[in-house]
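Page 47, continued from p. 46.
Same chain as before, 231 aa.
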Amino acid sequence: MEKIRLMLVDDHDVVRTGLKTFLQTQEGLEVVAEANSGEAAIDLAPRVSPDLVIMDITMAGMDGLEATRKIKQACADCKVLALTVHADKEYFLEMLAAGANGYVTKQVAAEELVGAIHAVVADQVYFQPALAAFLLEDYRRLLAHNPPTIMDGGSCVDRNLLETLSAREIQVLKFITEGLTNIETGEKLGISHKTVARHRERIMSKLKIHSCVDLVRFAVRTGLITINQRI
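Result:
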């Protein structure tokens, strides 16, 4: 099996070195390039053609937002995963608008970062569950202006899909769409975060959903969460 080729973009040498050291120990991952600026990243990405660019946002000179936009234009097959200290809505939504395929903070657990890498390379959109609150907020606003005609359990297709989930999977889905992390969900349910992650994979497979934003939409349509529910 070919390794996932990674390019690291961060203007802090210590961060890049630590990240590279960790990722190189993970089976199936290979760091093939590093850049210490947005400018260096957009020059390097088309030449190296990594499977995934792990992108910091706040850097001297060109920031990660602009670098992501330019990389996606020059190297359409390159996936971008934001890895940043910023957990606020503005950066999150702007990075997604720039073309990022995923978004995690630098406080993320090591194994969740590896999971995010694999998910994004597999053409899924990945961001930490806690950030789902931002998408839920925007979705509520959208519903307020364009209310759906059916809110009593969703469509027949949605209801049929919901019935494929076990009771535990429904619990996990509800907590995910409310913005809880795998660890927080595990604590509430008395199971390990690894078990939560496995439930999450099965949920997405059963529902044929590949992103948290679509999980949120599904949960709203089927009434698992409501637009008046507090986060």
